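From the shared-data thread, chain only:
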Amino acid sequence: MSALRAAAAAADRWIRATETFLLGGLTVALTAVTFSQVVSRYAFNAPIVWSEEAARYLFVWVSLVGAGAAVGRGTHYGLEALVRVLASPWRGVVGFACSAVILCFALVLFVTGLAETRLAAGQFAPTLPMRMSVAYAALPVGAALMIWHVFAVWAKRGLGAHPLDKD
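Structure, as tokens:
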């Protein structure tokens, strides 16, 4: 079992680093697009037509990848006050229940996100030269990250581990 834990920990470190890099890039892009829009609109009285739409899609990507990263880092919302006062055997039960709820939500988001992404593949963004499936792909990607992190917690610390405990 220690080989599985070591492999899960190594893969999880790589995924966390990738999430951090991706979130940094997306946040820089979101900030640059928004700043450019404000400057062009108020300083030059010439708004950038596509900037609002690009900022919206970037924000969705930041939110969903960030949700996966938050689960992976143990910083997502959790029932910490309840878990802290519970006796040891009940902590495992509540930890598993929290993991199961996160996992169920992420699975529903993944399946519906894939369906929505497929439906959007035939549509183009109104002002950007891209298919809408690029924007909708944030749903299954964010959900897959959440699913991975729940399984990684289980592999590293056991089924009773609370998914939002920090490593």
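The chain has one domain: 2-157.
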